[in-house]
Each structure stands twice: as structure tokens, then as C-alpha cells.
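Changelog entry: the Winged helix DNA-binding domain-containing protein record was regenerated in this release. Current contents:
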Amino acid sequence: MLAVQAQDFRAAFWALGVRSPASTAADVSAAIDNGSIVRSWPMRGTLHFVPPAELGWMLALTTPRLLAKQRTRRAQLGIDEHDVERAREVAVGALEGGHELTRAGFLRTLEENGIDTAGQRGYHLIWHLAQTGTLCWGRTEGTAQVLVLLDEWVREPRMLERDEALGEFLVRYLRGHGPATLKDFAWWSQLTMIDAKTALAVAGDRLGELRLGDVTLYYESDTNANTNANTDANTDANTHANTHAAFSSPPPPRDAVLALPAFDEYLLGYQNRDHVIDAELFERVVPGKNGMFLPIMVAGGRIAGTWRTTRAARSLGVRPEPFAALSQRRLAGFERSIRRYSHFLGTTISVTPAAVNGGDASL
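Regenerated C-alpha cells:
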């Protein structure tokens, strides 16, 4: 996947777990704690889980544009370069030698050194120091993580020249998300289309093409040779939806029902989402289009609804909210996916009757 969106910490655990058969939440925690996975802001100004060796070259590609976009916000917060570099000096002094601090502890350390963290200043300083390669999140502590120095936490970063890194970025995106368009890649990475075209030129012999009407999608080629797969211009959207998994191994059954987490890459990983959800249903996944993505139910490659959790003293409840009434077969498929989620969490989960979120047609 290269990167999995992770501002919702626990949802990101399941994003990894649902793609890793037989894994548990404890396995994900262990991978974070031993440095096999690192959490930072590699792109879009949003937290992601990434392989540690890849974080440095990703930041090198994405940071300049992100810092430029944040210039106005820094001015609003009254943060100048002196504040940033003073915070960096304090961070290195407090954390070098393998030390770590919780977010609250780090902000307190900044305050003790005369750096104002009121309002959003503290969060922005953490983000800026992580974006520019000083900090990242380290081991887990409860439901959060501690801050560490990136160059101490990631001991063996990959060193790539800019064009080489662009090509690698595209190939790695397509390995986990392809087939997809260059516009999808540019949106996901927040690189320019010029950069995306450079990436395509660099990585071209590692990619294959899939044509749907007048749209060209790319995927990582198993044979390292260009392969053109032409389809009829009238290929239906459901076929395209299933191509998201067509070049991964092993693919789920064509009509699998999956309970995917909030902010899942299956929906967020693309600029054009029409092939997995009808436009008029999108706001049911992102109520009010406020940027908060609900957990999604996927059936046969299409997003068929959302689901919600409720907590009791010793158990967890899940309530499916399909867009239309579920057939018994698909309801059973959803319950199987929730049993997998139950195993992942090590928690008893009960599924309550589905609450149909509009529509009468049976899915």
C-alpha cells in the first residue's frame, strides 16, 4: 500500500488488519513499537502509516508544496522561522539519545523553553518539525504514540534522487491501489501533474495500461513490460470497481462483503470515486462533506453502506447502515467480516439488525 491514512489511529489499525489475514491489533502495535511501521505526515498534510525506509524520500518530494500552502496559516498563528528553528533545537535537545515524549510532554517542554503553544501553535510546530524531517511518532502508549527523533527511529532510510523517487512513488502507489489514473496519483500524493508525468516516464517499463473508454489507467506490471488491455468503451462501472483488487494477491471473492474502516484507502485513494460509489450517496459516507469519513461496507466492489460501533462494558456492538436492504447472503457476508474484526480486536462483537439508510431495493 506504501501509505495508509492514519489520522484516526484505531481505524488505521484495522486498515492494516483487514489486509493482513490472521493479524491482530496487538500485531500492529508490535510492528509500530519495533519500528516496522512509522506514522508521520508524508503527504497531504495528513497522518499516514508508511514503511520507515520510504518516509524520507516521500517527505523530500511532498514537503515544499505543503509548507508553501501553510504559509498563511503560520502567519495567522504568529509562527515565524525563528520559532520553528527554536522548537527544533529544543526537540533535538530533549529527544536525542533515544528519549521520547508524549504530545503533552513535548508541548510542556516547549513552554518551559519559552515557546508559546497556545491554540493551534503547538500542533502546528509538531507538524512542521515532522514535515521537515526532525520528528515522527514512535512506540504506542495507550491509545496514542510518543514523539521521537526521525533519524534515530529510522536507522536505514532509502536515499533516492528526485526523478528516481518520483518513479518509485508512482509504482508503489499502483502496487497497492492500481489500476488508477495519473490524476488519481497526483491527487493522492499531492504532487503536480508535471511530476506525475515525470514519474510515468521514469517508471514506464514497470507499468501496464488498462483502457476504459477514453480513460487510461496504470498498474504495476508483473512482467516489467508494457501491457495494453483494451476494453469496450461501454464497460460498466462495476467492472472498473473490481479492478481495484484485480492485480493484488490474493483477491477477495468477486462478491465479497467487507467491513472497511473509516478513512479507508479503498475510497480515499482516488480522485475519481464514481466507480465505487454513486455520487448521490457520497454524503452518506462523509456527512455534510466535512472531511470525516465513516466506516464503509463494500459488496461486490461497490460501497453499499456504512457501519457504526457502540461500546458496552465488555463488548462491542456493530450496526450496519446499508444504503438499501441487504439480502440474507450479503448480511451473512458482512457478519463474517465483523467476526474477522472481532478476532483482530480480541473483543466480543455483536451485530445488531441493519438500519437501512434510504432506499428500498435489495442489495
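The first strand starts at residue 4 and ends at 5.
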